[in-house]
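Input (structure):
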Protein backbone atom coordinates (compact mmCIF):
# COMPACT_ATOMS: atom_id res chain seq x y z
CA UNK A 1 0.00 0.00 0.00
CA UNK A 2 2.83 2.41 0.86
CA UNK A 3 4.62 2.56 -2.55
CA UNK A 4 1.24 2.34 -4.29
CA UNK A 5 -0.03 5.45 -2.46
CA UNK A 6 3.22 7.29 -3.13
CA UNK A 7 2.98 6.49 -6.83
CA UNK A 8 -0.56 7.89 -7.01
CA UNK A 9 0.42 11.10 -5.28
CA UNK A 10 3.54 11.79 -7.31
CA UNK A 11 2.27 10.98 -10.80
CA UNK A 12 -0.53 12.24 -12.98
CA UNK A 13 -2.70 15.31 -13.29
CA UNK A 14 -5.19 16.58 -10.76
CA UNK A 15 -8.60 18.19 -10.59
CA UNK A 16 -7.92 19.62 -7.14
CA UNK A 17 -8.21 22.81 -5.07
CA UNK A 18 -4.90 24.51 -4.25
CA UNK A 19 -5.60 24.25 -0.52
CA UNK A 20 -5.66 20.48 -0.83
CA UNK A 21 -2.47 20.53 -2.85
CA UNK A 22 -0.60 22.43 -0.14
CA UNK A 23 -1.95 20.12 2.55
CA UNK A 24 -0.84 17.14 0.49
CA UNK A 25 2.76 18.33 0.48
CA UNK A 26 3.03 17.38 4.15
CA UNK A 27 1.93 13.84 3.36
CA UNK A 28 4.33 13.62 0.42
CA UNK A 29 7.21 14.73 2.65
CA UNK A 30 6.32 12.11 5.26
CA UNK A 31 6.14 9.40 2.62
CA UNK A 32 9.47 10.36 1.09
CA UNK A 33 11.36 10.59 4.37
CA UNK A 34 10.03 7.26 5.62
CA UNK A 35 7.56 8.65 8.14
CA UNK A 36 5.09 6.06 6.89
CA UNK A 37 5.96 2.48 6.07
CA UNK A 38 4.29 -0.83 5.38
CA UNK A 39 5.96 -2.30 8.45
CA UNK A 40 4.73 0.47 10.75
CA UNK A 41 1.13 0.03 9.71
CA UNK A 42 1.02 -3.70 9.00
CA UNK A 43 -0.65 -4.41 12.35
CA UNK A 44 -3.28 -1.73 11.78
CA UNK A 45 -3.92 -3.00 8.27
CA UNK A 46 -4.24 -6.62 9.42
CA UNK A 47 -6.78 -5.65 12.10
CA UNK A 48 -8.82 -3.29 9.93
CA UNK A 49 -12.27 -4.23 8.64
CA UNK A 50 -12.80 -5.03 4.96
CA UNK A 51 -13.21 -1.95 2.81
CA UNK A 52 -16.87 -2.79 2.08
CA UNK A 53 -17.76 -3.58 5.70
CA UNK A 54 -19.95 -0.56 6.39
CA UNK A 55 -21.22 2.41 4.45
CA UNK A 56 -23.15 4.81 6.67
CA UNK A 57 -24.44 1.94 8.77
CA UNK A 58 -25.59 -0.17 5.83
CA UNK A 59 -23.36 -3.13 4.99
CA UNK A 60 -22.69 -2.83 1.29
CA UNK A 61 -22.46 -6.60 0.95
CA UNK A 62 -25.87 -6.95 2.62
CA UNK A 63 -27.95 -4.50 0.60
CA UNK A 64 -30.35 -7.38 -0.10
CA UNK A 65 -31.31 -7.30 3.60
CA UNK A 66 -32.38 -3.66 3.42
CA UNK A 67 -36.12 -2.97 3.25
CA UNK A 68 -37.51 -2.78 -0.27
CA UNK A 69 -37.46 0.80 -1.56
CA UNK A 70 -34.39 1.81 0.49
CA UNK A 71 -32.03 4.61 -0.49
CA UNK A 72 -28.33 3.78 -0.22
CA UNK A 73 -26.18 6.64 1.10
CA UNK A 74 -22.61 6.29 -0.13
CA UNK A 75 -19.83 8.70 0.92
CA UNK A 76 -17.25 10.29 -1.35
CA UNK A 77 -15.13 12.14 1.18
CA UNK A 78 -11.62 13.59 1.07
CA UNK A 79 -9.12 13.72 -1.75
CA UNK A 80 -10.11 11.36 -4.52
CA UNK A 81 -7.62 8.82 -5.84
CA UNK A 82 -8.28 5.87 -8.14
CA UNK A 83 -7.16 3.11 -5.78
CA UNK A 84 -7.73 2.78 -2.03
CA UNK A 85 -5.13 3.13 0.72
CA UNK A 86 -4.93 2.36 4.45
CA UNK A 87 -7.25 5.19 5.37
CA UNK A 88 -9.52 5.92 2.43
CA UNK A 89 -11.66 4.40 -0.26
CA UNK A 90 -10.41 4.44 -3.81
CA UNK A 91 -12.67 5.51 -6.66
CA UNK A 92 -12.70 1.94 -7.94
CA UNK A 93 -13.95 0.68 -4.58
CA UNK A 94 -16.62 3.38 -4.29
CA UNK A 95 -17.73 2.57 -7.84
CA UNK A 96 -18.01 -1.10 -6.86
CA UNK A 97 -20.21 -0.16 -3.89
CA UNK A 98 -22.41 1.99 -6.16
CA UNK A 99 -22.81 -0.99 -8.48
CA UNK A 100 -23.66 -3.27 -5.57
CA UNK A 101 -26.42 -0.89 -4.54
CA UNK A 102 -27.56 -0.46 -8.12
CA UNK A 103 -27.83 -4.22 -8.66
CA UNK A 104 -29.82 -4.81 -5.49
CA UNK A 105 -33.59 -4.99 -5.98
CA UNK A 106 -34.23 -3.58 -2.50
CA UNK A 107 -32.28 -0.38 -3.26
CA UNK A 108 -34.42 1.96 -5.33
CA UNK A 109 -32.22 5.08 -5.29
CA UNK A 110 -28.76 6.28 -4.31
CA UNK A 111 -27.53 9.43 -2.60
CA UNK A 112 -23.84 10.24 -2.87
CA UNK A 113 -22.68 12.20 0.16
CA UNK A 114 -19.89 14.31 -1.36
CA UNK A 115 -17.41 16.34 0.66
CA UNK A 116 -14.22 16.60 -1.39
CA UNK A 117 -11.86 19.19 -2.80
CA UNK A 118 -11.23 16.97 -5.83
CA UNK A 119 -8.45 14.60 -6.68
CA UNK A 120 -6.65 12.67 -9.37
CA UNK A 121 -7.94 12.90 -12.93
CA UNK A 122 -7.95 9.11 -13.25
CA UNK A 123 -10.40 8.82 -10.35
CA UNK A 124 -13.21 10.44 -12.34
CA UNK A 125 -14.06 8.04 -15.16
CA UNK A 126 -14.74 4.95 -13.05
CA UNK A 127 -17.17 6.83 -10.80
CA UNK A 128 -18.92 8.61 -13.66
CA UNK A 129 -19.44 5.28 -15.42
CA UNK A 130 -20.90 3.67 -12.29
CA UNK A 131 -23.29 6.62 -11.84
CA UNK A 132 -24.35 6.62 -15.48
CA UNK A 133 -24.91 2.86 -15.47
CA UNK A 134 -27.05 3.18 -12.33
CA UNK A 135 -29.14 5.95 -13.87
CA UNK A 136 -29.50 3.78 -16.96
CA UNK A 137 -31.35 1.20 -14.86
CA UNK A 138 -33.89 3.83 -13.87
CA UNK A 139 -32.57 4.26 -10.35
CA UNK A 140 -31.95 7.95 -9.58
CA UNK A 141 -28.64 9.17 -8.17
CA UNK A 142 -28.61 12.41 -6.18
CA UNK A 143 -25.51 14.25 -4.93
CA UNK A 144 -25.72 15.73 -1.42
CA UNK A 145 -22.69 18.00 -1.10
CA UNK A 146 -20.89 20.02 1.51
CA UNK A 147 -17.94 20.66 -0.77
CA UNK A 148 -17.89 19.52 -4.39
CA UNK A 149 -14.79 21.01 -5.95
CA UNK A 150 -12.94 20.13 -9.13
CA UNK A 151 -13.03 16.32 -9.67
CA UNK A 152 -15.73 16.00 -7.00
CA UNK A 153 -17.89 18.52 -8.84
CA UNK A 154 -17.36 16.60 -12.11
CA UNK A 155 -18.72 13.52 -10.29
CA UNK A 156 -21.66 15.49 -8.93
CA UNK A 157 -22.65 16.71 -12.40
CA UNK A 158 -23.11 13.09 -13.48
CA UNK A 159 -25.95 12.73 -10.95
CA UNK A 160 -29.63 13.49 -11.53
CA UNK A 161 -29.61 16.37 -9.04
CA UNK A 162 -27.09 18.27 -6.91
CA UNK A 163 -28.19 19.43 -3.45
CA UNK A 164 -26.07 21.62 -1.16
CA UNK A 165 -26.38 20.15 2.30
CA UNK A 166 -26.21 23.55 4.01
CA UNK A 167 -26.09 27.28 3.31
CA UNK A 168 -22.98 28.02 5.35
CA UNK A 169 -19.99 25.95 4.25
CA UNK A 170 -21.26 24.20 1.12
CA UNK A 171 -19.25 25.29 -1.91
CA UNK A 172 -18.94 24.27 -5.54
CA UNK A 173 -16.75 24.80 -8.58
CA UNK A 174 -12.97 24.84 -9.03
CA UNK A 175 -13.60 23.68 -12.60
CA UNK A 176 -10.05 23.30 -13.88
CA UNK A 177 -6.96 21.12 -14.03
CA UNK A 178 -3.40 21.48 -12.82
CA UNK A 179 -0.24 19.53 -12.20
CA UNK A 180 2.63 20.10 -9.81
CA UNK A 181 5.94 18.39 -9.22
CA UNK A 182 9.15 18.96 -7.34
CA UNK A 183 12.51 18.82 -9.08
CA UNK A 184 14.54 16.89 -6.51
CA UNK A 185 17.63 16.55 -8.70
CA UNK A 186 19.52 19.51 -7.19
CA UNK A 187 19.29 17.90 -3.74
CA UNK A 188 20.72 14.62 -4.97
CA UNK A 189 23.33 16.34 -7.13
CA UNK A 190 24.72 17.96 -3.97
CA UNK A 191 25.04 14.45 -2.59
CA UNK A 192 27.12 13.41 -5.59
CA UNK A 193 24.50 11.79 -7.79
CA UNK A 194 24.70 12.34 -11.55
CA UNK A 195 21.53 11.96 -13.62
CA UNK A 196 21.51 10.60 -17.16
CA UNK A 197 18.55 10.26 -19.55
CA UNK A 198 19.06 8.43 -22.83
CA UNK A 199 16.32 8.14 -25.44
CA UNK A 200 16.10 5.88 -28.48
CA UNK A 201 16.54 7.64 -31.82
CA UNK A 202 12.86 7.12 -32.80
CA UNK A 203 11.70 8.50 -29.39
CA UNK A 204 12.43 12.19 -29.82
CA UNK A 205 9.05 13.31 -28.49
CA UNK A 206 9.06 11.09 -25.42
CA UNK A 207 8.87 13.17 -22.18
CA UNK A 208 9.59 16.35 -24.14
CA UNK A 209 6.83 18.37 -22.45
CA UNK A 210 7.90 17.24 -19.00
CA UNK A 211 11.60 17.88 -19.61
CA UNK A 212 10.80 21.37 -20.88
CA UNK A 213 8.72 21.97 -17.74
CA UNK A 214 11.73 20.99 -15.63
CA UNK A 215 13.53 23.87 -17.34
CA UNK A 216 10.70 26.26 -16.53
CA UNK A 217 9.17 26.11 -20.01
CA UNK A 218 5.52 25.20 -19.35
CA UNK A 219 3.80 25.96 -22.66
CA UNK A 220 4.06 22.46 -24.11
CA UNK A 221 2.84 20.58 -21.04
CA UNK A 222 0.05 23.10 -20.66
CA UNK A 223 -0.99 22.73 -24.31
CA UNK A 224 -0.63 18.97 -24.67
CA UNK A 225 -1.62 17.70 -21.23
CA UNK A 226 -3.54 20.23 -19.18
CA UNK A 227 -5.57 22.20 -21.72
CA UNK A 228 -7.33 19.18 -23.28
CA UNK A 229 -8.46 17.99 -19.85
CA UNK A 230 -9.62 21.47 -18.85
CA UNK A 231 -11.64 21.86 -22.06
CA UNK A 232 -13.20 18.42 -21.59
CA UNK A 233 -14.11 19.36 -18.01
CA UNK A 234 -15.79 22.58 -19.17
CA UNK A 235 -17.69 20.82 -21.96
CA UNK A 236 -18.86 18.10 -19.57
CA UNK A 237 -20.19 20.66 -17.08
CA UNK A 238 -22.05 22.50 -19.84
CA UNK A 239 -23.53 19.24 -21.14
CA UNK A 240 -24.50 17.86 -17.72
CA UNK A 241 -25.63 21.21 -16.33
CA UNK A 242 -27.26 23.09 -19.23
CA UNK A 243 -28.56 25.69 -16.78
CA UNK A 244 -25.07 26.81 -15.80
CA UNK A 245 -24.54 30.48 -16.58
CA UNK A 246 -21.24 30.28 -18.45
CA UNK A 247 -21.12 34.09 -18.65
CA UNK A 248 -20.35 34.41 -14.94
CA UNK A 249 -16.65 35.32 -14.59
CA UNK A 250 -14.63 32.37 -13.34
CA UNK A 251 -17.44 29.85 -13.30
CA UNK A 252 -15.73 27.57 -15.84
CA UNK A 253 -12.18 28.64 -15.10
CA UNK A 254 -11.65 27.59 -11.50
CA UNK A 255 -13.55 29.87 -9.09
CA UNK A 256 -15.46 28.48 -6.11
CA UNK A 257 -18.98 29.55 -5.18
CA UNK A 258 -20.94 29.15 -1.96
CA UNK A 259 -24.34 27.48 -2.07
CA UNK A 260 -26.50 30.56 -2.61
CA UNK A 261 -24.44 31.75 -5.60
CA UNK A 262 -24.03 28.19 -6.88
CA UNK A 263 -27.82 27.85 -6.97
CA UNK A 264 -28.25 31.23 -8.66
CA UNK A 265 -25.66 30.38 -11.32
CA UNK A 266 -27.00 26.90 -12.06
CA UNK A 267 -24.20 24.85 -10.52
CA UNK A 268 -26.66 23.11 -8.17
CA UNK A 269 -30.40 22.43 -7.96
CA UNK A 270 -31.31 23.15 -4.35
CA UNK A 271 -30.07 23.85 -0.81
CA UNK A 272 -31.14 21.64 2.04
CA UNK A 273 -29.90 18.69 4.05
CA UNK A 274 -29.05 15.05 3.51
CA UNK A 275 -32.70 14.27 4.28
CA UNK A 276 -33.76 16.63 1.51
CA UNK A 277 -31.45 14.83 -0.90
CA UNK A 278 -33.03 11.49 0.09
CA UNK A 279 -36.49 12.99 -0.42
CA UNK A 280 -35.42 14.23 -3.85
CA UNK A 281 -34.18 10.74 -4.74
CA UNK A 282 -37.54 9.29 -3.67
CA UNK A 283 -39.39 11.89 -5.74
CA UNK A 284 -37.34 11.12 -8.83
CA UNK A 285 -37.89 7.42 -8.25
CA UNK A 286 -41.66 7.96 -8.17
CA UNK A 287 -41.51 10.06 -11.35
CA UNK A 288 -39.52 7.35 -13.12
CA UNK A 289 -42.06 4.73 -12.07
CA UNK A 290 -44.94 6.83 -13.44
CA UNK A 291 -43.10 7.53 -16.70
CA UNK A 292 -42.25 3.87 -17.15
CA UNK A 293 -45.91 2.93 -16.58
CA UNK A 294 -47.15 5.55 -19.07
CA UNK A 295 -44.61 4.54 -21.71
CA UNK A 296 -45.02 0.80 -21.28
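Output (sequence):
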Amino acid sequence: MYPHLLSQILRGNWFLRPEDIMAGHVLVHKLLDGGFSNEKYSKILSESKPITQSVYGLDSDKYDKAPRGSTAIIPIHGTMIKYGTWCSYGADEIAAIIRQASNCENISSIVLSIDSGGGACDSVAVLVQAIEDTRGTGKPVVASCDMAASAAYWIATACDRIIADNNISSSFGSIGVMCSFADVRPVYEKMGYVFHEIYADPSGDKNEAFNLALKGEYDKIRKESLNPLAIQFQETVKANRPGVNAEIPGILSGKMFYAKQALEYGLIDDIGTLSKAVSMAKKLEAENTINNYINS
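Notes: The first strand starts at residue 14 and ends at 16. Residues 2-180+238-295 form a domain with the 2-enoyl-CoA Hydratase; Chain A, domain 1 fold (CATH 3.90.226.10).
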